[in-house]
Amino acid sequence: MQLDILTPEGKVFSGEADAVQLPGLDGLFQILNNHAPLIAALNEGVVKIEKNNTKQLINIKSGIVEVINNKISVLTEGVV
Question: What is the pLDDT of residues 6-39, one digit of tens each?
Fold first, then answer.
C-alpha cells in the first residue's frame, strides 16, 4: 500500500507499507492491504508503519486519514 503523511509544512513520509496502525478518536485501528474505503478523524498519537518485518513510528498531532484503492493519505496538523 502507498502511505503518505502530510503536514502544512510538507511531506513527512511517503512510501510503501504492509500495515499501518493509527490513533483514531475511539482508539487504535489498523489498515491492511485491500482495506475498504475509509475516512476517519485521528487523535494525537503514534502512527506505526510496518514494512518487511520492520517498524517505523511517527508521532502526529490530530488529523484525518483517507483510504482508497490501497492508498493511505494522512493529513495532520504536524508531528511531535
Answer: 999 999 999 999 999 999 999 999 999 999 999 9
pLDDT of residue 49: 98
Which three cell numbers mark 64?
484525518
What contacts 53, CB < 8 A, 6 or more positions away? none
On the CB side of 70, how many CA atoms lie within 13 Å of its CA? 8
Query: With contact defined as beta carbons under 8 Å apart, do 40 and 57 qualify?
Result: no
Cβ count within 10 A of residue 52: 7
Which residue ranges form the domains of the chain, and what is each CATH number? 2-76 (2.60.15.10)
First to last CA, the chain: 24
The candidate with the shortest Cα–Cα distance to 16, out of 50, 63, 57, is 50
Task: Quote the CA–CA distance of 70 and 72 in Å, as a whole number.
Answer: 6
